[in-house]
Amino acid sequence: MTPRRARGAGLGPDRTDEFLIGVLALQGGFEAHAGALEELGARTRIVRVPADLEHLDGLVIPGGESTTMTLGIERERLAEPLREFVRSGRPTLGTCAGLIMLDRGHLGVLDVSVRRNAFGRQVGSFEADLDFEGEPLHAVFIRAPWVEEHGEEVEVLAEVDGHPVAVRQDNVLAVAFHPELTGERRLHHWLLDYAGVAA
Amino acid sequence: METGTFRVKAGLAEMLKGGVIMDVVTADQAKVAEDAGAAAVMALERVPADIRADGGVARMSDPTKIVEIQEAVSIPVMAKARIGHFVEAQVLEALEVDYIDESEVLTPADEAHHIDKWQFKVPFVCGATNLGEALRRIAEGAAMIRSKGEAGTGNVVEAVRHIRLITGEIRRLGSLGEMELPAAAKELQAPLELVRDIAGKGRLPVVLFCAGGIATPADAALMMQLGAEGNFVGSGIFKSSDPARRARAIVEATTHFDDPERVAAASRELGDAMPGIEIGSLEANGGLLQKRGW
Asked: pLDDT at residue A47 above 60?
């Protein structure tokens, strides 16, 4: 996941606390994301209306119900401001429903088509050990989607049964699982690292 | 790959946070709920207000209805089983509902035992009137807790009492020393391990929603300000004069619960709320649903 600085190279808690990361909080697992980012030393802001996006260094679109979130984005007129945010080059992390929000059929800022509830209903929700860019990563999938099809610019970082479940395109990292629920911090770290590069 | 783990069960409740779960009886109602922004729907044979009015035994919903609802919407579909009726729960699991509510709104099937929820891959949500009850349900395997409130009344007073009791008792545990926790566990009739966990973290180990009597956007925002992480709304939506509009308004007020201007805006021009019932009048008339379960 480049660009990435070597761990600890100028990115201690004394640097990360300069970053302000927004977490979209219309509905879903936003608190766990905010907690994970604060654990890494970042400041966070709950995002519910367009004005909340001002002066952010990065953004998380969490898991939740994608229909509820889509309606919320419409109601709050957040679609265009969110697109502008992502296009500005600042790092954006989407998890589960967040991956769906970023896809071609929704905000259209990530060149992927995503299948909702691809692994089935809740009885099909699972935990699995992934090969994430050659490193092991334990992941929790909840009524999770997968990437059905993607453009050439999109890098696939992990798969389950041949289906991409983690992808990156420039400043957008999106996964079908929930790093915020397991203590997995590499993806949040990427967000802060990238914010450092973009700043 | 491992399915049905507690992390996966409790994880779905995490994803429902900040959302509204709406009681529905038919596929059409489920669609209305989904289009209004419900985070999930709860399938049941009659809404609580009708159960209260009709009397008789209230059971799990007809599987035909549940399947119709599952086919009509893509959001999670929950369904209610009677307290202790583990075969209704097995049926609901076979239907692949996303969450089972072992609910006091239905007529209890067992006067002494709740369902052993660890035996299921589908997660359970259970009602509680206080912290001890919540912890006993969690010990039995519940992956989400809701206040009981008093369903079908359109009266929020009992839900307020329950959420205040639960959050107040959590705060009290946080003030106790290690030596005092065993006595507190005994008093709560709850496992010491859970009591210790809550004393340390200052919160339940699972998501806490509110249920029972929410009828207006202001009710929904009130429960959120009192510490609920989301709302169940039963009769409040489909017993009102304009369900689609009221459902949208309650979703909006649950999201913007701490912004009075937004709650005010959401509360305008909704038509009539469901008619409410004064709790005192129930004691004589069939009794309180919240007293079911222990």
From this structure: yes
- The answer, yes or no, to whether residue B284 has pLDDT greater than 70, is no
- pLDDT tens, residue by residue, B117-170: 999 999 999 999 999 999 999 999 999 999 999 988 999 999 999 999 999 999
CA distance A193 to B57: 59
- Do B14 and A71 count as a contact with CB atoms less than 8 A apart? no
A65 contact B CB<8A: yes
A114 in contact with chain B, both atoms CB, cutoff 8 A = no
Domains of chain A: 4-198 (3.40.50.880)
Q: What is the pLDDT of residues B169-205, one digit of tens each?
A: 999 999 999 999 999 999 999 999 999 999 999 999 9
For residue B14, the distance in angstroms to the closest alpha carbon of chain A comes to 5
DSSP string computed for B117-141:
GGG-SS-EEEEESSHHHHHHHHHTT
Q: Strands of chain B (E only): list them.
A: 2-3, 20-24, 40-43, 77-82, 99-103, 124-128, 144-147, 207-209, 231-233
Token pair, residue A49, equals: 């209306």
Of all residues in chain A, the percent with pLDDT exceeding 70 is 91
Give the sign of the dihedral formed by CA B188, CA B15, CA B124, CA B121: negative
Interchain CB distance below 8 Å, B39 and A26? no
With 0.80 as the threshold, say if the pTM is over it: yes
Is the CB of A99 inside 8 Å of chain B's CB atoms?
no
Please, how many CA atoms are within 13 Å of residue A151, restricted to the half-sphere of its CB?
Answer: 11
Task: Copy the structure tokens of residue A156.
Answer: 């696939």
Residues 6+ away with beta carbon under 8 Å from A8: none
Q: Closest to B8 (Cβ–Cβ): which among A63, A120, A142? A: A142
Active-site residue, B201 included = no
Which of A72, A120, A127 comes nearest B5 by C-beta? A127
Residue-level pLDDT at B34? 98
Candidates B206, B25, B65; CA nearest to B123 is: B206
Identify all chain B residues contacting A125, using CB atoms and an 8 Å cutoff: 3-4, 8, 11-12
Beta bridge mates, A20: A43
A-B Cβ pairs (cutoff 8 Å, strict) = 117
Do B37 and A67 lie within an 8 Å CB cutoff? yes
CA distance B293 to B224: 25
